[in-house]
Structures are given as structure tokens and as C-alpha cells.
Amino acid sequence: MANMVRRHTTSARLWRAGLYTLLIVAALVYLLPLVVMLLTSLKPLDDIRAGGLLSLPSTISFEAWSKAWGAACTGMRCNGMSGYFLNSIAIVVPAVAISSFVGALNGYVLTKWRFRGANLCFALLLFGCFVPFQVVLMPMARTLGWLGLASSTSGLVLVHVVYGIAFTTLFFRNYYVSIPDEMIAAAKLDGAGFWRIFWRILLPVSGPIITVTVIWQFTQIWNDFLFGVSFAGFDSQPVTVALNNMVNTSTGVKEYNVDMAAAMIAALPTLVVYVLAGKYFVRGLTAGSVKG
Amino acid sequence: MPSNVSAPASRERRHRRSLAGHIERVLPRLVVAPSLAVALFFVYGYMLWTFLLSMTNSRMLPQYDFVGFEQYARLFANERWHVAATNLVVFGGLFIVSCLVIGLLLAILLDQRIRQEGALRTVYLYPMALSLIVTGVVWRWLLNPGLGIQAMVRGWGFEDFTFNWLVDSDMAIYTLVIAAVWQASGFVMALFLAGLRSIDDSLFQAAALDGASLPRIYTRIVLPSLRPVVFSSVMILAHIAIKSFDLVMALTGGGPGYATDLPATFMYAHTFTRGQIGLGSASAIMMLCGVLAILVPYLYSELRGQRHG
């Protein structure tokens, strides 16, 4: 249709100008919160009180960042976000690894070793993508208590693995469906068994889907708040819960710059992943949501 | 050397091979079995468990003397639940419609062979990578009347400018809509853009040859063929709306008062802080019903679509 428009040049030029203006204004609106967050985190408190959300800092100071990282109060404690940041890492790494691996195996079996009831099995697993987690909170709290995992990092890893499998299975299944069965049949004729086919034939071609799955799971688990606030103890709270506590701590002077720096700290890991691997992030979103 | 193999050895080997074959046959099932067991227990079992809890009089701790549907009666007589349910309809409706409109508009604009399209797309979509807690914290800062947008615009000389929705109990629910739309509309844009790209270019050219104007092409040809995308977007957005919890906690905390309570925050408050596990479980089951109410028609039409086409 661009060809069609190009015939009348002046109106076409106006139309293109309007188009770009609209798109750029929209982009600015989307960027505004991030810009304000960053600016505020770099301002001294006096600048903030003087008003002007978008005014540039009189002096750029990283004091708020270092306070948010190491000394700001979240509820009763004043150790900053660092400990909670590490908690999040301790939860995310095993949970992502285990759920992705299990999902890969499930996807492999459900496409290449189909047994009777495989479809039903997949459908049963898939419902885990939809269940509102409020339905599982109370029973999960009881179960974690019985298992001796209440308020622990391992408990949160378990929760994230359990409710992540539905998504990871979906991702790998949809990817492995497109790998020709003939490859598997040929390998079987050559005497390759279940594991050998998985390690030697499927995994080597799984690069893209592993990336998509790991990014999806990482984003989901890093950004989780509901499970963290429901099941974590003081020593295992993830960064999102700590951020919420910090912002809601009402004692003392409200330090907006520290709040914003803390928000940046909590947001940076997923933002960096998004900027570096946006393509895979989007693919995960659409795969996880459209089909899920 | 086959000729050298004695009879018992070969029998044993055959036996071993069949044992190996047997393991090989059940191995796939064995591999999936733990996941299935986990799903049966942690998803279906828990749904049943929560349903049972919703039939009891549990308060601080779960206990199991059954009172039938009494908690549901209490729930529907509960003023705060009414606020939460009404809020969900208002929030969900506005959120879905705004995301669809903005997402579609941005997608159509971006589909005009734009330079730097990739960069723009990245900008529209980045909020989706953020935690809703971060989104809530940022928007709470932007929307606070004292130092946020209101103060900024007043600082520009519009002394009477008022934008204090965050602290106005009639308007606070709309702040949730603003923040949620900011977060999710870029995602809807991505879905629509993918949909637009899958439309055959020859359709456009044929319509253009027939002398159809650009708006006409969009309303008559493009929009109808985007129906499946609209459908799945609505379904995803509705799902996000029903589950919305983080954003409320970070942006309004459910306040002022309980003016911005949603079912998810109602459930959390009653189950974990107010010692009303029975009532909280009943509200959780209602949320499940809400999800099923949008999921079942969706799956039905998806499956039917597959069968027909």
C-alpha cells in the first residue's frame, strides 16, 4: 500500500510526517516512566522536593543507588536490597534450570514417543498455565509446612518448578512437533535408545527454544510477587517483595530517590535480558500466551 | 561371532534385550509420570482442596467441619467483595478495550514500512519485561499529587490542574487501568503486528486496484481477518485482569480504604491477614470460575476451528 500512497507526494509526505510524529510521541509516553525513574534515582532529595519530575538533577549522585543496595529499610531491617537480590538469584537459577529441563523431556516424550493418552496427558498439564494461583495458595502453604520447606528458598524453588512445568512443556512440545519424525525413526533403526536420541539428536537443535524457555521462566520467576509474599520467610524474600516493603515502609523521611533506585535494581535483570534478547522474549510471550 | 555363541547365552541375551525393550517401552511414560503426578496433586488436587476449604468454617487455620455453601452466601453478602467484583468488571473492561485499541493502532501505524521499526517496537514492548511491582512503584511516584505529574503540570503554570486520582477513592481504580495499559498494550501491539504481517499482500493490492481507500481497506479487509488475534488477546488480557494482584499491592495497596480491591487482593487479605480462610477460599473458587468462564468458550472455539480448518 505504500506504493499506492507514494503517487501523490505532498499529501503522502504530510501523512508520513504525521505517522512518524504519532509513533514518536507514543514512544516517548512509553519511555516516560523509565526516564522519570532513572532521573529521580540520580537526584538528591532537595532536587526532588523542588518539584519537576523531568528536570535534570543539579548534581548526579549515585548515593540513592548505594543506599538502596546496601542500607535502605525494608520493613524492620535496614540492609538494602542486596540480600533480597541474591535471594532472587538463589530462587531463579535452580527453578529455571529444573523446570526447563523437565519441560524439554516432557516435550520430547509427548511428540516423539507418543503413547496412548499422550494428548490427554498434555491437556492435563496445560491447564496449569491457566489456573489462577489464588486457588493453590492455601493448600501450598500447608504442604510446604508439612515438607519442612515453609519460608525457605527451596520451598519457593519447588513452587516455581511445579507451576512452571506447564509452560516449559508447552514450549518444548510445540517446538519438537516441527522436528521431522523420520530423523528419530532413522536413529531408532541405528539402535539409538531413548536417552541417546534426546541428547544426540534433539538437544543439539534445541538452542532457540531453550533460549525462549529460559528467558520466559527467568522473567516470570524474577518478577513473581504472589508466591514470594505468600511463602517466603524473612531470609528468603525475593527482590519484588523487598521492593514493595521498602516503598511501603512509612518510618522516617520518604526518600523517593532511594525508592526509585531500588525499583531500578529490581527491574534491571529482566530489562537487560529484554534488551539483549528481545526477539526471544517476544517469541516466548506470543507462544506462551497465544497458544497457552 | 554368531556361530560361537552358545544357546543359553543367546537366550539370556534375548531375554536381556526384551527386558531392555520393555524398559524402553515404558520409559517415555516413566519420564512424564512425575510431571503428571505433580499436576494432578498441585493443580487438580489443590483446586479440590481449596473447594473443600471453601465449604468449611476455617478461620485462622484450616479445619474441616463442613458448613455447606455458607461461605459463598457470606461472600455475596459482603460489601467488600461487591466492591472487588465491580472493580474487576470496570478495571478489566477498560483495560481490555484500551489495550486492544492502542495495540491495534500502534500495530497499524508500525505496519507502514517505518524506518527504525525494530527500535520503536522495542520501546513499546519493554514494560512487559518489568515486574508489576516495579510498574506499580513507578506509577505511584508519577501519580502522587504532591510531587508527581500534577505538581509538574502546575509547575508549568497551570495552577488549577488537578490529577489526584490516586488518592480519590472514586477515581483510584482508573490509575490501575493506566498503569496496566502502559504495561500490556505493547504486547497486544506485537500480537496484532504479527497478525497484520500474516495477511496476504495481494489482498491489499487487489483492493487498492479496485479503488478502495486505505481506511476502507482496513475496516473491510484487515480487521475481519484479525478476528482470531482479537479473540486471543481478549482472552489473555482477561486472564491478566482476573489475576491482577501485584499491581494493586504496589500502586494503591487496595486503597483508599478498599476502593481498589480486586478479587485477588480480597482473597489474599482474607486468607492470610484477616484469618478468614473459609471466605478467602470461596473467593478463590469464584476466581477460578471466572477464568473457566473465559477459557471454556475460547478452547471450544479453538478446537472447533481446528476441526473445520
TrEMBL record, chain B:
Key word Nucleotide-binding present: no
Annotated localization: Cell membrane
Membrane-topology descriptor: Multi-pass membrane protein
Any GO BP annotation: transmembrane transport
CDD domains registered for this protein in UniProt: TM_PBP2 (cd06261)
Coiled-coil intervals: none
GO cellular component: plasma membrane
Transmembrane feature ranges: 26-52, 88-110, 122-142, 171-196, 217-242, 277-300
Principal location: membrane
Domain ABC transmembrane type-1: 85-300
Annotated keywords: Cell membrane, Membrane, Transmembrane, Transmembrane helix, Transport
InterPro entries linked to this entry: ABC_transporter_permease, MetI-like, MetI-like_sf
Protein name, UniProt field: Sugar ABC transporter permease
Species this protein is from: Chromohalobacter moromii
Organism lineage: Bacteria, Pseudomonadati, Pseudomonadota, Gammaproteobacteria, Oceanospirillales
